[in-house]
Design a protein that fits this description.
about 180 residues; alpha/beta; Molybdenum Cofactor Biosythetic Enzyme, Chain A; six-stranded mixed sheet; 6 helices; about 35% helix
């Protein structure tokens, strides 16, 4: 008997922009992520912008991962090699588990768009207190690449053979079959 397809299940997603130069009005990367996540059927849980400061980032994200209603945190900015880029250093101590393949796959997909410049991305992801955290570059194009090429599928319960949704909000029990 074929498996019944798993229906889409909306997630609560928070977006953090890390920037020393942008204001919320100029945050096209955050805007792009919000447009994509809401278009996909997810809920914007919260949105903030902080300076590239390890402790400010950790404070915001720590509050989100302590909130059981937050399933996913998308962080844009601070993943490069400039002296102020510190998003990976800020987030790695919070991770219970690192999602090694995320950064690798992001750079592979990004290579087709920006060539060898992709090696300057330190995009990473991890799981903290049953909350997924994805650290993306600050460019709008990179955020679109990450969402379209990876996140849209991995945050969709119907994606096969596997996705992150049931790990975040448990298995869907609304479509159980009678014996």
């Amino acid at each position: 008997m074929a498996k019944t397809p798993t229906p889409f299940r909306p997630l609560n997603i928070s977006v953090l922009t890390v920037s020393d130069t942008r204001s919320m009005a100029e945050d096209t990367s955050g805007d792009a992520l919000i447009e994509r996540l809401t278009h996909a059927g997810h809920k914007l849980n919260d949105r903030k912008l902080v300076k590239d400061d390890v402790y400010q980032m950790r404070a915001v994200v720590s509050n989100w991962i302590a909130d059981k209603e937050t399933h996913v945190v998308l962080i844009t900015g601070g993943t490069g090699f400039y002296s102020r880029d510190s998003t990976p250093e800020a987030m790695m101590p919070l991770f219970d588990k690192t999602i090694e393949g995320f950064g690798e796959l992001f750079r592979q997909i990004s290579y087709t768009e920006i060539g060898t410049s992709t090696i300057q991305s330190r995009a990473i992801a991890g799981l903290a207190n049953q909350t997924l955290i994805f650290c993306l570059p600050g460019s709008t194009g990179a955020c679109k690449t990450a969402w379209d090429g990876i996140l849209a599928e991995q945050l969709n319960a119907s994606h096969r053979p596997c996705n992150f949704v049931s790990m975040l909000i448990g298995p869907d029990t609304t479509h159980q079959h009678e014996a």
